[in-house]
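Reopening: structure tokens for the manganese (II) ion complex, inputs below.
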Amino acid sequence: MAKKKILKKWSWERKSGWLRISKTEKKKIFDFSEDYKDFLSNNKTEREFVENALAHVKSKGFKDISRLKSIKKGDKLFYSYKNKALILAKVGSSPDFKLVAAHVDSPRLDLKPFPLTEDSDLAFFKSHYYGGIKKYHWMSRPLALHGVLLTKKNKVIKVSVGEKEGEPAFIISDLLPHLAYKQMDKKMSEVIQGETLQILIGNIPLSEDDKHSVKANVLKLLNEKYGIDEEDLAVGELEFVPADKPRDVGIDGSMIGGYGQDDRICAYTSLKALLDSKVGRRTNLALFVDKEEIGSVGNTSANSSFLLNFANMFARLYKAKETGFDLLFNSKGISADVTGAINPLFKDVHDSENASFLSRGVSIEKYGGNGGKYLTNDSSSEYFNEIRNVLNSAKVIWQTGELGKIDEGGGGTIAYILAKFGMDIIDVGPPMLGMHSPCEVVSKLDLFQTYKAYRAFYNEN
Ligand code: MN
Ligand code: MN
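Re-run output (same inputs, fresh job):
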């Protein structure tokens, strides 16, 4: 056979997904993206996600598993944990699980316990960054303040400032270039130090006789608005996030730029896929965990026992022969997280034969980790094949790849953590540009393929 024929027949042609869809599908993809952008605007923290998702699923008939006496096929359940993690279930005719797991925390700037300071007539909130950031990204851009404050009488006050039109936003002010000659010679990791990430919070002094006068005025305003004092600031959980709304990107509007898409793009698509999935043999679970960005530690992370606790409760209420642990052991899983797309501006960190490309579909990654495949779930070939076949029969556009060149660095997902139960699991998620930046960019086509992939996984019983 001629070379051309052989290549056409047996090579794996990987081209843009936009060339592989019809006009109707293109319209579907663009329509699908509109809701997603609203979702991103309204869910900038793990707490907001859990609160909004709960309200949504309750309106769809989901019931709190911890209040039920028994469960049966067709039931829709939720289990929310500490306002930061959530499990949703659609009960099938068998108690065996199929689960898709995403994380709902994103890199951000958390407040320090004693945040309020004053210098040169300016009041600041000191922050301690959360997750892997490039610190200079957070300078000179509008930030919004989200989170909760608790009073001594246990009142929980929700905080959101900087999102609505007319509300003030917050800024970390960078050095002017005119006086930055020395700064410009520094290594990028040293230009902005963690301690430099102090957010401007006020400038009006309360009176002229006190050196903490601007701070005093900020405390007065905080007390008027929230009824809190400085000690309450230490107890609260306040996070600064980019104040911008997600936007279409490109003259063709093919991409979406916005904060927190790692990993709320997977949270959104898996939530929607679960809601749209049919009740079949296996019980479908959607798992939303916290603290992934700081190594999956803590009681709301994938490493916490709340999943096992849920499984035990489920087994008991279902009157299953198996224990909760058995159910997890026998599960089939998808770790729903994003991967890095090849960026032509920084091509040398990618192996372009083995990178994921924007708009070539959802990416199935057999493994992640660092050089030498350390600390990763290296999925079995058998399971990869099973997932590949599910996606192919549902006509999902998919690709595969690695994060970057072997010795350039690396990153992980929660796949290896859930794999400790013994379940089969593999990473499936969309590629993105500028991961962990305040404005991550994804393709609308990949967004839709990710949704289709999770839905196909759930529906294949
Ligand atoms: Mn992630
Ligand atoms: Mn991440």
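The pocket of manganese (II) ion (ligand 1) is lined by residues 103, 262-263, 292, 337-338 (CB under 6 Å). The chain has two domains: 15-106+259-459, 108-242. Marking as resolved unless the reporter disagrees.
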